[in-house]
Design brief:
Blueprint lengths: L6 H16 L3 H13 L4 H12 L22
Length: 76
């Protein structure tokens, strides 16, 4: 995902990138990987792998619509 200076100029860029993610097969692969991890019988090994993966996540994607107006924080 590209960083943009402000919401108005970056909306189309963000929309294009998010539409590409919506059509990706990666979320389905991650879902099935999670299901396979939960089937590991060893509690210690399962928790180690899950914490190893989840500690590296920096972005969460959702199809929930965002705000209709931009937030103003400290004048920006």
């Amino acid at each position: 995902m590209q960083l943009v200076d402000n919401y108005q100029s970056g909306f189309q860029i963000i929309k294009r990138d998010m539409n590409a993610v919506k059509k990706s097969i990666i979320p389905f692969g991650l879902m099935y990987m999670g299901k396979m991890l939960m089937a590991i019988p060893s509690h210690f090994l399962r928790n180690f792998i899950i914490s190893f993966i989840s500690n590296r996540e920096t972005f969460v994607f959702s199809n929930v619509p965002g705000p209709t107006k931009g937030y103003v924080i400290v004048g920006n």
